[in-house]
Amino acid sequence: MAVHTSQSVAKAAGDDVARGPSRGAGTTPGPFRRALSTHWYAWTMVAPVVAVIGVIIGYPLFRGIYLSMTDANERNVERSIGVNHMPATYEFVGLDNYADALTGDQFLGTLGWTLVWTVSCVSVTFLLGLGLANILNRRIAGRSVYRLMLILPWAIPGFVSVFAWRFLYNEDRGFLNRILAGGGIDAVPWLNDPTMAKISVIAVNVWLGVPFMMVALLGGLQSIDSAQYEAAEMDGANAWQRFRHITLPGLRPVSATVILLSTIWTFNMFPVIFLLTRGGPGEATQILVTQAFKFSFEISPRDFAQSSTWGVLILVLLMLFAAVYRRVLRKQGDVW
Amino acid sequence: MRRGITATALVATLALAATACGGDSGETGDKKASGKLSGTVTWWDTSTVGSEDKVFKKLAEGFEKKHPGVDVKYVNVPFGEAQNKFKNAAQSGSGAPDVIRSEVAWTPEFADLGYLAPLDGTAALKDGKDFLAQAAASTKYQGKTYAVPQVIDSMGLFYNEKIFKDAGVEVPKTIAELKTVSKKIKDKTGKTGLYLRGDDAYWFLSFLYGEGGDLVDAKSKSVTVDQEPGVKALKVVKDLVDSGAAKTDATDGWENMQSAFKDGKVAMMINGPWAVADTFAGKEFKDKANLGITTVPAGSKSQGAPQGGHNLAVYAGSKNLDASYAFSEYMTSAESQALVAKELSLLPTRTSVYSQPGVSDNQIVGFFKPVVDKAVERPWIPETGSLFAPLVTEYTKVLTGQTAPEKGAKATGDQYRKLLKGWK
Known about the structure:
The complex is a heterodimer of chains A (336) and B (424).
Chain A: H1 2-19, H2 30-67, E1 79-81, E2 84-86, H3 96-103, H4 105-137, H5 143-155, H6 158-169, H7 175-182, H8 194-222, H9 226-234, H10 239-267, H11 270-276, H12 288-298, H13 304-331
Antiparallel strand pairs in A: 1-2
Helix pairs in contact in A: 1-2, 4-8, 4-10, 5-8, 6-11, 8-10, 10-13, 12-13
Chain B: H1 2-21, E1 39-45, H2 52-66, E2 70-76, H3 79-92, E3 99-103, H4 106-112, H5 133-137, E4 140-141, E5 144-145, E6 148-153, E7 156-160, H6 161-167, H7 175-189, E8 192-195, H8 205-210, E9 216-217, E10 222-223, H9 228-242, E11 246-247, H10 253-262, E12 266-271, H11 276-280, E13 291-295, E14 308-314, H12 321-331, H13 334-344, E15 347-348, H14 363-374, H15 388-399, H16 405-419
Helix pairs in contact in B: 2-13, 6-7, 9-16, 15-16
């Protein structure tokens, strides 16, 4: 145990040196030792956290990356069941899985729909959230009641509301089609038709995502100085001009963050797709994460290698997105 | 001094954390001391909730009366989830049951993965010669027996006698007749003819057999699903849906099928004995005579339904193997099978049970026995259970018009060849 902690301390302190090249450190052991002797207490205190994070995040991550470079599946991984013991027989195959994923049409096809899904969910959610936040930012009667009701979807556990939607969408017995039947309209195949299923899953995700957008943007709106609006009014700016030149720029720090978060969440929004359609009909609504889950848990023999490959590719894509997004924002003058 | 305190505190914290982590080693399996069975046997049943499960639960708990030292834990796992749940639990080594009701196609797969205990020479197998050869076939893998047959089944066409009478139609014998019958039913009563499950490819098999096709041919090690009959069968089901003779769903197929048929919204469905108890619970079938069953409609080449069924298999990592063997024997004994056949109309796997009173005069058992005798036997290879996942994706795509039958059959065949290394 003692050995373990001291290692962590040394490693963590090493990080410190690496992060501070501007101080001229790195070549001589002086700053390292000085850092160790001044901050040893802090590093000791941090060590357990570093160790725990290393175990719960680092290990699965590196294991996943390793598996993605093998041909591991259910039939060749190590298993020990009672008296039966089967050693691992999978082999290292290098980057073959990545080559297969990136040249085949399944990954790219799924990625295409995942992008459509993410962009439409985030944009619709953002616009609706912005609209609602603006409405609820005015003094209207029963404002707190409205605010409370609009937050409701957020207060219900996600899987519960998704199941509720699944019942609503049922083609024969669902509530939505009963209402339509009352108006003499034919039943809509909400989840049975590929195009309708796509629209239906997006609608559910928007419904789930609006409260977060609304609350975050409402907070942003309230932090805008009302003196600016008064000044603009004095100068004769109309409502649209005030919205365009005060509200939108004032919301930028908030909206930049919520759009980034919302994009990452939606890209990986497993429960909505999985619980509503399981990626169906066929593969019409399959996004990258649900397909990766399918490889690893639904098909047999379970393909752990391919599933890990898709997982790593998802991580890389999101990291790229975050990097580009940050750079664009920084160019426009936001520091964040 | 300060250093000393920190170190002690750290060690103490870590020690606490370590003990907290290692707290779940209490297992219930006790070895028998003197030939008497004891401990807990957890059984995962996959029967239909609300009808079949009550009978099986009562039967399973009857084991406790015979062996008072044993505690039977009955767990009902939905059939659609059981295969994956068992694999998760079996591989991780925690949470797996001692005994699982394993569908015939799962059994060779579980055995191949090393999850099942071989049963030859154990108390689980008694009067092995009494089992129907068809039922016993799926329990064998590489010369060993890995399960005990519990029930055997096949599929038939269930129909609503009243709707047929109202529409003035005869029971269809072929798919062509089924189409005309459905049209008449629609014209006369406004109801849909057939409910076709679109989210489970098992329901597609009888159409495939009807066109003279099969998924694979294990004898010549070749994939056959993408040949002419496979394409034709996909065209047939697509045509049934497009022409309005049948309705289908891409999700919740089982619930939608059962409720549509039970409420008299559709006149026919293809189903097996496992659906009988649940169907009788429906308001249309309070009078049991209203339910008619006939053979599945023939295609252009032949007529056939898949042979299915369930086995009881013992988890190799069970802490209580002896009681699990005895439990599997008890559940598949002639006595238990007779009770299940009487109460649920499920078909026994023991020859001797068919002549027992209460079974021999059960109409549904009497109908399905000849169907099972003629049913199409699938190859009992580990991959048999894996053939449905690729097929159902393409099957649903064809039904919802996302891909053409030719392309769907070809995509399925390509996936099969990836799965079955070295097959043609």
